Amino acid sequence: MEWTRRRLIGTSAAVAALAGCLGEDDPDENPDRDDGESVETDDAGDDDRDAETILEEHDLEDHTGQEVVEIAVDPEGDGFEPETLKIDRDTVLEWTWEGPSTAVYPIDIPSDCLWAEEVDAETVEERDAGEESDRLFWAEGAYRYASRDADGEEFTGAFRVRDNEAGAEGDEDETEDE
User: Fold this and answer.
1) What would the pLDDT profile of 53-81 be if each residue is shown by its tens digit?
2) Whole-model pTM?
């Protein structure tokens, strides 16, 4: 594996994220479950917030084989561009803000995923046009995330992280036969 500057930074960010999440949590504050199901950070539990449901309803933009994928955050326009995509494990997603909104926060993520900060719609920080944020995704599964514009309106995006050893046969979970 070639250690590019972006991979080194992404790996460092992932290590920092893990270090910050390994402390003891109050059971009422930790939505992780031991049954391997996705974690929903919203108590509503509606299907319209379920990552798997969203991904099944959309054609995913294929970004497999890329080390870094750029996503525009445009609160005044289309929200996230691309809105839905698929990537390989160990891919860095890099969000770039085109207008003021909040940082990206998780809605529905795999239980193996550790989001760097314990953020949700109420605790997320503000971002300005031109700011960037990136995150390395190594846990396979369906992800749904969001941001809020200056008026507090939420816009969402979703993606699937797949095993990069499985090949590019489609959007289905290629690891079932392994």
Assistant:
1) 999 999 999 999 999 999 999 988 889 99
2) 0.66
β-pairing verdict for 154-162 and 141-148: antiparallel
What pLDDT does 43 receive?
Answer: 40
For 98, the 3-state DSSP assignment is coil
Write the CA distances from 135 to 53, 69, 146, integer angstroms.
23, 10, 14
**Tokens describing residue 150:** 């200056």
Q: Residue 65 burial by CB count (10 A; 0-12/13-18/19+): exposed, middle or buried?
A: exposed
Rounded-to-integer distance, Cα 74 and Cα 96, Å:
9
Quote the CATH superfamily of domain 5-22+40-167.
Cupredoxins -  blue copper proteins (2.60.40.420)
CA-to-CA dists, residue 154 to 26, 43, 128, angstroms: 28, 16, 16
- How high is the pLDDT of residue 32? 43
